[in-house]
Amino acid sequence: MKKENKKGIKIIKITTITLAIVLITMISFFGIYTKNKGIISNKLKNYNYSMALKGNRTIELNVADTASEEALTEENYNKAKDIIGKRLKNLGVQEYNIAVNNQTGAIQAEIPENKNTDTIVGNLTKIGKFEVTDTETGEVLLDNSDIKASSVLYNNASTGTAVYLEIAFNKTGKNKLKEISKTYVKTEETNTTSENETEGSTSEENKEKTITMKIDDEEITSTSFDEVNKTGKIQLTVGGLATDEETLQGYVTQAQNVAVSINDGNLPIEYNMSKNEYILASKSIDNKIAITISIFTVAVVLGIIVLMVKFKTKGILVAISYIGFIALYLLVVRYTNVIISIESILGIITTIVLNYIFIIMLLNKTTEYDVKKATNETYKHFFTRTIPICIMSIAFSFAKWIPISSFGMILFWGLAIIAIYNISITKILLKIGTEEK
Fold first, then answer.
1. Which contacts qualify for 387-390: CB closer than 8 Å, 24 or more apart?
2. 73 neighbors 79 (Cβ within 8 angstroms)
3. Which residues pair with 132 in a beta bridge?
4. Domains along the chain?
5. How far is it, in rounded angstroms, from Cα 127 to Cα 360?
6. Cα(375)–Cα(363) distance, integer angstroms
């Protein structure tokens, strides 16, 4: 009876782990689909493909006719290029190409195509000029030279979430803001008139002075201060109260765009967009990658069959674990924002091959030792031999060239999962499967 109970518990444990692996595999390879307002969509995060695989948006910017002759210099052309490059980086564009024509000032940029591309493109031609002026006289009281940094803040309330653009000023700007807030203060309105004034006139002393905030000469708000500003910061409300994720993200994006335009400096020259089109990736590359993946998939299947034939029960258990490893690894790749390039695909293949080598080593060790000791020996020998690969993956991850950095990051995450997954899943499955009946 005890033997039957042990056997039953053993089957339950293996079945539970297997079903968990099947679930992860189904999610990883097929996704999670939901229906909202009649639209069926996959809730799983998409892979982040490189421009070589997915295509790119090509943008060309030409110097505007309104640009002054004095501004048309090679120095300003390169400064504009650098500022646009910073904007792309700060707007979350991981991969981009940008070049400038030093004779004409024309700038060409290539960026990945995704749901944020149109918003990003719309920010490239903004000058980024920030000004605080006297509403009545137009006198400039603060400008970009007074700004230290700008950022986006949130404030959660029971009625919704408010989004703010916070502008922090440098030492000079902070002092200016403090003096401005003493002058431009709110006053109580009065309808009384002086005996010496004609009816309907107001006292000049009671007239409220206000400031106007502008970005690229567009008025953002006109206001006055309730009290002296000693913080050196101004907060501007962006939109209204957001009660859903989509609206909130819209306000956040709007605020981030303004923050990036302000933080990265003014474009020294005004630009107009002359080209904005999507360029498809090369079909020959797609075909080669599809063939490579197909061949590798067949090789993985054959490798799994070899495991089951050669190692019998142990091979079947390890094969189940191996499939789960691939599924989990691909899920991690989705959510670590690694760019999938031709090079990183090679990194994925390398990782899957390395894990296969690991489990072969482990299975061979189980013929000499128990599962615990076999696992310890395998870890010691495998990771000792892969130290150069570990070092290379870390070094490559910090490379500025996307193909190399993506390969390094893919390999780094792969090695990390090999280390964690096999001691958590593969070892447990083998231990359960080799328990005495």
1. 389/354, 389/415, 390/415
2. no
3. 142, 213
4. 2-37+282-433 (1.20.1640.10), 56-190+203-279 (3.30.1360.200)
5. 60
6. 9
H-state helical runs in 264-282: none
Token pair recorded at residue 51: 């421009």
115-124 per-position pLDDT tens digit: 888 888 988 8
Q: What is the pLDDT of residue 256?
A: 85
Angle at 300 between CA 297 and CA 303, to 5 degrees: 155
Residue 338 identity (one-letter amino acid): V
In DSSP notation, 33-74 reads EEEETTEEEE-SPPPEE-HHHH-EEEEEEEE-TTS-GGG--H
Judge whether 235 and 164 are in contact, CB under 8 Å. yes
Among 12, 4, 7, 17, CA closest to 317: 17
What are the CB-based long-range contacts (under 8 Å, 24+) for 96-105?
97/51, 101/77, 102/74, 102/77, 102/78, 104/62, 104/63, 105/62, 105/63, 105/72, 105/76, 105/77, 105/80, 105/269
Q: What is the Cα–Cα distance from 342 to 51, expressed in whole angstroms? A: 10
pLDDT interval class at 198 (50, 70, 90): very low
Q: Which residues, in sequence order, are CB contacts of 301 under 8 Å at separation 6+?
A: none
- Tokens representing 424 are 């958590």
Structure tokens at 305: 């069959």
pLDDT tens across 16-55, in order?
Answer: 999 999 999 999 999 888 877 667 888 888 888 888 888 8
Two tokens, residue 240: 């209204």
Sort residue 431 into left (φ over 0), alpha (ψ -120 to 50) or beta: alpha
CB 141 within 8 A of CB 196: no
Which residues have C-beta within 8 Å of that of residue 158, sequence separation ≥ 6? none
Classify strands 48-49 and 339-340 as parallel, antiparallel or unpaired: parallel
Check if the beta carbon of residue 112 is closer than 8 Å to that of residue 104.
no
Phi, then psi, of 136 in degrees rounded to 5? -80, -45
Environment class of 400 (CB within 10 Å of its CB; exposed 0-12, middle 13-18, buried 19+): exposed
Q: List C-alpha distances in Å: 214 to 105, 179, 219, 233, 255.
A: 27, 19, 4, 16, 14
Residues ≥6 apart with Cβ < 8 Å to 264: 83, 86, 87, 90, 128
- Average of pLDDT values for 303-307? 94
Would you call 29 helix, strand, or coil by DSSP? helix
Q: What's the CA angle centered on 256, arms 253 and 258, to 5 degrees?
A: 110
Maximum alpha-carbon separation in the chain: 112
